[in-house]
Write a structure and sequence with these properties.
Elements lengths: L3 H9 L4 E5 L10 H6 L4 E6 L6 H12 L5 E5 L2 H5 L7 E7 L8 H11 E10 L4 E4 L2 E4 L5 E3 L5 H15 L23 E3 L1 H11 L1 E9 L4 E8 L2
Parallel strand pairs: 1-2, 1-4, 2-3, 4-5
Antiparallel strand pairs: 5-11, 6-7, 8-9, 10-11
Helix pairs in contact: 5-7
Length: 229
């Protein structure tokens, strides 16, 4: 089955500069190779991981194996970079699996807007508006964004049981306990937006949603967003 993220990138990236924000995790989940295959003119990997970390070396090995163009590697927090006078900009930006790890998601989306000239391909986990299992039933308004640190009792038990089917104990803060929630910690899952809320957040940050669809058993949503002038 074709990855819709790849399709969106393929539609808009030919002859344009491309950046993959946070794509270093797992190495093989990067979209640099996709942008290269569709004719991007310049490639950048932007990730918060320190340059001396093994993941950068693994990514370089993958780049050489796939015979990709030279990739500019930038280690840094995109929010901090976007708030500097030397904020980098790219025609097309991809970001997947990061938004719900950000304590301040609107600030993060604004940062993505600042570094994006034309299009953003954005993916985030989302929550359904109704969940039901052995722990009870949870109804979530379409305009809601669940704040994971606030979950407790039956609400937490219901969500935890649901997500364990898909991520086991790997959702830090949701299916795995967090001793202390810290606003500088990007490892936990902080937020679970509905799709309507996610779209509204993107509009607020200066994007116009063009297309979007669910995947991963309707637990994630990918959007092709254009920059609002």
């Amino acid at each position: 089955m074709k990855d819709l993220r790849d399709e969106y990138i393929g539609r808009v990236v030919r002859g344009k500069s491309f950046a993959d924000v946070g794509g270093l995790w797992g190495t093989v989940n990067e979209k640099i190779s996709v942008a290269h295959a569709y004719g991007a003119s310049a490639l950048t990997m932007l990730d918060i991981t320190p340059l001396e970390h093994e993941l950068w070396h693994l990514f370089e090995e993958r780049r050489r194996t796939l015979h990709l163009l030279e990739v500019q590697c930038v280690s840094g927090d995109v929010v901090m970079l976007a708030e500097t006078d030397s904020c980098p900009q790219f025609d097309v930006v991809h970001c997947s699996g990061i938004l719900y790890h950000m304590p301040d998601p609107i600030r993060f989306l604004v940062a993505l807007r600042k570094i994006t000239r034309e299009f953003l391909v954005l993916t985030s986990v989302v929550t359904a508006s109704q969940l039901k299992n052995q722990h009870g039933e949870l109804r979530i308004p379409q305009a809601a964004v669940l704040f994971v640190p606030a979950l407790q009792g039956q609400e937490r038990a219901t969500l935890q049981a649901y997500w364990q089917q898909f991520v086991g104990d790997n959702a830090i803060g949701l299916t795995q306990a967090v001793p202390t929630w810290r606003p500088d910690d990007y490892a936990p899952w902080w937020w679970l937006p509905t799709v309507d809320a996610l779209r509204a957040m993107c509009r607020t940050a200066g994007f116009d949603p063009q297309e979007g669809d669910y995947f991963w058993n309707n637990n994630a949503y990918v959007q092709l967003l254009s920059v609002r002038e």
